[in-house]
Amino acid sequence: MPESNTNALFSPVELGSTQLKHRVVMAPLTRSRTIQQGGIPGDLMLEYYIQRTSDGGLIISEANQLSLASQGWHGAPGLYTDAQISGWKKIVDTVHAKGGHIFAQLWHPGRFLMCHSPVERHLSQRPWTMNTGRTHPA
Hints:
Number of helices: 5
Largest sheet: 3 strands, parallel
Helix content: 25-40%
């Protein structure tokens, strides 16, 4: 690789309000290492992200389900219960303490889920309530 390209790869870049010390970014990888039941990020996930944190670097997390109804596979982490948020907070705080940055990848498996998830089929047949307290038809 020509030296100018190498220098650019390891040069700082600003990504919105995030200042990265280099342009090497860890892409999201699905690991399915949560605590079950509940899709809770635990010590195994913490170790995984610690091992991949670099000073001033960026990690994009594995896909996070946004609700029980959007779970695409067993072991996928969630970001909708207090326990899941607490697990992710421990990971994020540790990445930040090592000088790294982490962005959460928010995810929904789309049509695949609607065909394969008994939770989705069950929930789609019931009215649901948002924080407004109003009931909405399925």
